[in-house]
Amino acid sequence: MSEYTPSPSQPLSQSDERLWAMLAHLSVLLNLVTGFLGVFTPLIIYFIFKDRSRFVAFQAMQSFIFQLVFWGGAGVFVGIMWAIVGVLSAFLVGLICIPFAILFSFLPLGALIYGVIGAIQTYQGQEFRYWLVAEWVNI
Questions:
Q1: Rounded Cα gap, residues 38 and 93, in angstroms
Q2: Which of 84, 80, 105 is nearest to 95 (CA)?
Q3: Residue 135 exposed, middle or buried by CB count within 10 Å (0-12, 13-18, 19+)
Q4: How large is the C-alpha radius of gyration of the chain?
Q5: What pLDDT is recorded for position 7?
Q6: Which pLDDT score, from 0 to 100, does residue 57 have?
Q7: Which of 5, 66, 75, 139 has a C-alpha 20 to 30 A away from that of 90?
Q8: pLDDT for 47
Q9: Measured CA distances, 74 to 47, 111, 114 (Å)
Q10: How far apart are CA 21 and CA 38, in angstroms?
Q11: Where are the domains of the chain?
Q12: For 5-31, how does the pLDDT look when each residue is reduced to its tens digit (9 = 90+)?
């Protein structure tokens, strides 16, 4: 009987790094279909590849935090904004707030576009850093 010994994790090739980094950023598109699974996909990618590639780990963690803040947080913010508009619409003030609520409703769409930009840049082998989020990720 031979004893099984797991082989140490091999580092990823550059093309695999670019592919997994791109998929971490493109996971934001899953939010269109599922509403929330896109947030957890980069976290799964991070845990799978954190020991094999710093580049993938950094890009995946950035994508996770970005989606958590700008998809989840924006969704909550937009819901609260529309609730306030609904309550205030009983008064004339609520009607004035409707254009602002419509404007804020496009915030998650901006997150989708920004995630796709990150996917394209990382697939091309470029370093991508989300505005404000990259400083939170220490990998």
A1: 36
A2: 84
A3: exposed
A4: 19
A5: 54
A6: 95
A7: 75
A8: 95
A9: 25, 9, 14
A10: 14
A11: 14-125
A12: 545 578 888 899 999 999 999 998 888
**Nearest alpha-carbon partner for 17 in 57, 68, 72:** 57
Question: Would you say 57 and 46 are in contact if contact means Cβ atoms under 8 Å apart?
Answer: yes
Give the Å distances, CA to CA, from 96 to 11, 88, 112: 56, 9, 28
CB atoms under 10 Å from CB of 72, counted, come to 17
Cα angle, residue 119 at apex, residues 9 and 13 outer, rounded to 5°: 25
Distance CA 103, CA 100 (A): 5
What does the pLDDT look like over 59-106, one tens digit per residue? Answer: 999 999 998 888 778 778 888 888 887 787 777 666 777 788 888 888
- CA gap 61, 42 in Å, rounded: 7
